């Protein structure tokens, strides 16, 4: 079996360090071959992106170009329509039949996963790796619904001496919580700062700031 591949979707409107740093840590800790950043065309569970598709793609490409373990994947843009993660995982499974797939998401996303399209089928195609921020997500599990708690208990990894390396042994089917560096950055806050003529330095890569200024985005 080949090394596992990380899958990370989002609108990336704009992409920021809160997207980048946790996924680099997960790539290292989990021994992933790489992480595929997959911009959504139309996110079905949130407002439509503010920025045009080509600009969001360019921002992701710029943000990850210096990290060899990050890859831009435009399959949801190419597919068009609502960007259901289940459809994306089915497509990825066809392309990477011998690699475990690890769907990477934050605790906030996992806590709302019951609103996703056919959410319980996701584990038929991938593992789910949930990033926990050590402070803000500490009590998140207490707010889960009974059905989500049962889903997690049924599919969670039991920690053992091999730890996170368990995901190397099966293609899909497990849920694992991983602690990452806390970076409480949001794209909404970044857009608000730009509208208010406030600096976003050290929230996003400098190349993204330059692109935003070049295209006069978010004003």
Q: What is the helix fraction of residues, given as a range?
A: 25-40%
CATH architecture title: 3-Layer(aba) Sandwich
Q: What sort of overall outline do the alpha carbons produce when their principal axes are compared? A: globular
The CATH topology is given as Rossmann fold
Strand order of the largest sheet: 3-2-1-4-5-6
SSE string: EHEHEHHEHEHEHH
Residue-averaged pLDDT: 93
Described by strand count, sense and barrel closure, the largest sheet is: 6 strands, parallel
Distance between the termini: 48 Å
Question: How many domains is the backbone divided into?
Answer: 1
Radius of gyration: 17 Å
Model description:
By secondary structure, this protein is of the alpha/beta class. It has one domain (5-184): HUPs (Rossmann fold, 3-Layer(aba) Sandwich). Helix content is 35%, strand content 15%. The chain contains 8 helices and 6 strands, in the order βαβαβααβαβαβαα. It has a 6-stranded parallel β-sheet with strand order 3-2-1-4-5-6, with helices on both faces. Helix 2 packs antiparallel against helix 8. The longest helix has 14 residues, at 17-30. The radius of gyration is 17 Å and the shape is globular. The mean pLDDT is 93.
